[in-house]
Amino acid sequence: MAKMTGAQALIESLKREKVDVMFGISGGALLPIHDVLCDCNEIRHILARHEQGAAHMADGYARALGRAGVCMATSGPGATNIVTGLANAYLDSSPVVALTGQVNTYSENTAYMIGRDAFQEADIIGITTPITKYNCQVKSPAEIPTAVKTTFHIATTGRPGPALIDFPKDTQTKKAEMVFPDNVQIRGYKPNTEPHPIQVKRAVKMLLKAERPMILAGGGVILSNASPELLQLAELLMMPVATTFMGKSCFPENHPLSMGNIGMHGTMLANKMILEADVLLAVGTRFQDRSTGTLDGFCPNAKIIHIDIDAAEIGKNVPVEVPIVADAKPTLRLIHQQLVHKIKKRESTVWSKKVKEAKETFLSEMDFGKAEVTSPKLLKELRKLLPNKAVIATEVGQNQMWAALHFQTIKPRTWISSGGLGTMGFGFPASIGAKVACPSCPVVDIAGDGSFRMTEQELGTSVTEDIPVIVVILNNSMLGMVAQWQRLFYKSRYAAVKLGSVPDFVKLAQAYGAEGVRAASLSEFSDATKKALKTEVTTVIDVPISPEDDVFPMLPPGKGLKDTVAGL
Amino acid sequence: MAQEHTHIISTIVENKPGVLYTVSNLFRRRSFNIDNISVGPTEDAESARMTIMVKGDDRTIEQVVKQLNKLIDVLKVTRLDPENIVTRELALIKVNALNTKARSDIINYADIFRARVVDVSPESLMMEITGTPDKIDAFIGLMKPFGVKEVARTGITALSRGAKSIKVDE
Ligand SMILES: Cc1ncc(C[n+]2csc(CCOP(=O)(O)OP(=O)(O)O)c2C)c(N)n1
Predict the structure, then answer these.
(1) Contact A188 B21 (CB under 8 A)
(2) CA distance linking residue B149 with residue A316, whole number of Å
(3) Number of helical (H) and strand (E) elements in chain A, helices listed first
(4) Does residue B1 carry a pLDDT above 60?
(5) In A111, A377, A561, B156, which residue has its Cα 20 to 30 A from B108's Cα atom?
(6) Are residues B108 and B62 in the same domain?
(7) Is residue B165 part of a domain?
(8) Same structural domain for residues B25 and B92?
(9) Contact B72 A133 (CB under 8 A)
């Protein structure tokens, strides 16, 4: 076997992982890798404008496609700039693989080496240990093929999560005999995917007996691609389905059994119905505080069946009756299989009638606001303008919660939002990543003006790299969600939330060579969106809204789901 | 608050750099308290054993075990049954021994505790003692009136009794 450099081995390994795109910014400690990329036609390197953007792009790519998204950053500040991106991916279980440059492992005659505080040396392994599923530093070039295989395997299997490989510069340049493994045996990593038959039996029995069964579906359903199985099971038993924030899009929201999201900004419907359930089938959710409210007020009448691939999630926040540590897809399939042996598809039950009535009332009472242009109206309109396969990314704050409440998602992986970390500035780069993953789908970032300001420089990436997306800025000139809390809980004393009306986002977009439009009415918004869908460059649609609108319903912090407030 | 107990968790980990950091980082991040810890090689050169003493209620300990299990470099985690284990710690204790009376009192106590004198100087004695952490605490307590100059403890180590062993599943 011929010798090759570590950098060549890395690129070869990435090809073997079927990586066809990566997002990053180069620098001194990555030069050898970028040099090899010059001769590589199979992998597209998309130059981001900030490494945080690169990490979020890789994340958006991963979420839209269900495959690893790769980002790359140089040693020191490049590497520390991806930290937010990794923490974000970690809390949302997204398989982002980060490759970082590092100073030399050893240097004969200079202090450019690890441990000497060399130029642009940062301990990225130490820094990212608590926010990655796995990380490692390569010590010699021959380790590279196995390190890459191991890292991709860990990032994408079991409960997915971000992983990082740190490449000291000398491991990139030195040559070695390389062996590329087809698979790896990792002694300490054997995720369990198949459910335990006894627990499945118990779950089936409990579901059969249930009078008011309900499903709570989390992000795990999407990660496991289990939407068809979920739908089948829900319809068989006529079980209403509520989603967690991360679970949004795993169940078609135009389906009669869809209750929408539960939680702090869940729908009144979901937050109410879950209180009545007698059996809750919770799939791929970690019962986070934003979903459950206070724990004693969370589905107080229900016994819980909990399916999760991560054993540590079972019993972490709520006690459960039937724990099933397994992949959601085969588990739901098995439960369904055993149920169809015992019963026919239910057409209607006392409970399902009640659910249907509750939903009708809920729909008739929906409040879209009084003003001509409100965020809920806009989002309802946007749904009509987009095909079902369109991907929605969001920023963080009111924009995100309005989108969760009022933009109906129909297909899995069309909802990309920072749930766990709540990272402002995630949505726009994530939408770029999603567009790279799904070039034939329109991709729209629902943004707040504050969040967009945090990563707006990626307009440069989207224009020069030809990745057209649509950004809809719900522009209240405020850090709106913080302002809402100040209105509700701090006597309307505004502190550090007024952003003013700079920049002019229309001009900003134009300065980058993108399209910029202002929409002052619903019809202008509709026209602008239709045009943007046909335009081959990114469009920023700036929609001025009231600086003082609130997102409702809202579950005040420290309260139980029953205390959800519908509005003021 | 549920009842807190002390638990001993025996963990087999990859014997490689960084693992101690990863494990201690997990305890810090999730607010689990390590009471006592020791690390050393095992019968297999590629694995090391960490013996960790933690305080917490049952739910916390269950989380400790599950979170440890999630770490890639952790190969096996076992909660040892406190009724059925041997635990040991070793300590070196340097005590002032300024006159003959103090010296002979110290040696008498040492005999009772099966501690050994391992170094002697005109003003001090150094003793070696092995036993459960409680026993060592008690011995150090008795030495206090003489003036304890230095203490070095290894941390706890433990194995369960009987022929069974904790093995990594291959
Ligand atoms: C990086 C980051 N910094 C701060 C916050 C705290 N925070 C949460 S929502 C919010 C306001 C968001 O403002 P904007 O993007 O304009 O959205 P709006 O709420 O107005 O829709 C802030 C500052 C955060 N989530 N992320």
Answers:
(1) no
(2) 45
(3) 23, 20
(4) no
(5) B156
(6) no
(7) no
(8) no
(9) yes
Collapse the DSSP code of B36 into the 3-class scheme (helix H, G, I; strand E, B; otherwise coil) and give the result: strand
Q: Which domain covers residue B108, as residue numbers? A: 86-157
Looking at the structure, tell me whether residues B67 and B134 fall in a common domain.
Answer: no
3 state SS of A351: helix
For the domain that residue B137 is a member of, what is the CATH number? Answer: 3.30.70.1150
Any domain includes B170: no
What mean pLDDT comes out for the span A246-267?
97
Give just the sign of the alpha carbon dihedral B6, B11, B16, B21: negative
CB contact under 8 A, B25 and A134: no
Q: What is the DSSP string of A432-494?
A: HHHHHH-TTS-EEEEEEHHHHHHHGGGHHHHHHTT---EEEEEE-SB-HHHHHHHHHHSTT--
pLDDT value at residue B168:
77
Domain count, chain B: 2
A541 has a pLDDT exceeding 90: yes
Residue B166 lies in a domain: no
Domains of chain A, CATH where assigned = 2-178 (3.40.50.970), 197-364 (3.40.50.1220), 375-551 (3.40.50.970)
CA of residue A556 to ligand 1 center, whole Å: 18
pLDDT of residue A271: 97
Contact B66 A311 (CB under 8 A): yes
User: Which residues on A lie below 8 Å from B72 (Cβ)?
Assistant: 133-134, 154, 186, 188-189
CA distance B128 to B90: 7
For residue A553, is the peptide bond before it cis, meaning its omega torsion is within 30 degrees of 0?
yes
Quote the pLDDT of residue B5. 86
- Positions of A marked catalytic: 51, 119-120, 169, 481
Q: Which of B80, B96, B130 is the last residue of a domain?
A: B80
Give the distance from residue B113's alpha carbon to the nearest chain A alpha carbon, in angstroms. Answer: 41
Beta strands in A370-421 (DSSP E): 391-394, 415-416
> Are B35 and B51 members of one domain?
yes
Domain stop point among B60, B80, B100: B80
Question: What confidence score (pLDDT) does residue A30 get?
Answer: 97
Min Cα separation A524/chain B (Å): 50
Is A191's pLDDT higher than 90?
Answer: yes
Is the C-beta atom of A474 inside 6 A of ligand 1?
yes
Token digits of residue A542 = 């700036």
pLDDT number for residue B166: 76
CB atoms within 10 A of CB A190: 11
pLDDT of residue A111: 93
pLDDT band at B17 (very low <50, low <70, confident <90, very high): confident
Instruction: For residue B16, tell me if it sits in a domain.
Output: yes
What is the pLDDT confidence band of residue A1, given thresholds at 50, 70 and 90? low
pLDDT, residue B170, reads 59
Nearest to B25 among A129, A154, A310 (CB): A129
For residues B117 and B140, membership in a common domain is answered with: yes
CATH of the domain at B18: 3.30.70.260
- Compare B82 and A50 and report the one with higher pLDDT: A50
Pocket test for ligand 1, best of A396, A501, A548, A550 (most atoms within 8 A of CB): A396
For residues B50 and B103, membership in a common domain is answered with no
Read off the tokens for A94: 């997204």
Render pLDDT for A89-119 as a digit per residue (tens, 0 to 9). Answer: 999 999 999 999 999 999 999 999 999 999 9
A436-478 tens-digit pLDDT: 999 999 999 999 999 999 999 999 999 999 999 999 999 999 9
What pLDDT does A460 receive? 98
Q: How confident is the model at residue A36 (pLDDT cuts 50, 70, 90)?
A: very high
CB contacts of A315 in chain B (<8 Å) are 59, 62
Would you put residue A135 in left (φ > 0), alpha (ψ -120 to 50) or beta? beta
Q: Which residue has the tokens 């937050």?
A: A271
Q: Are residues B116 and B56 in the same domain?
A: no
Same domain, B76 and B45: yes
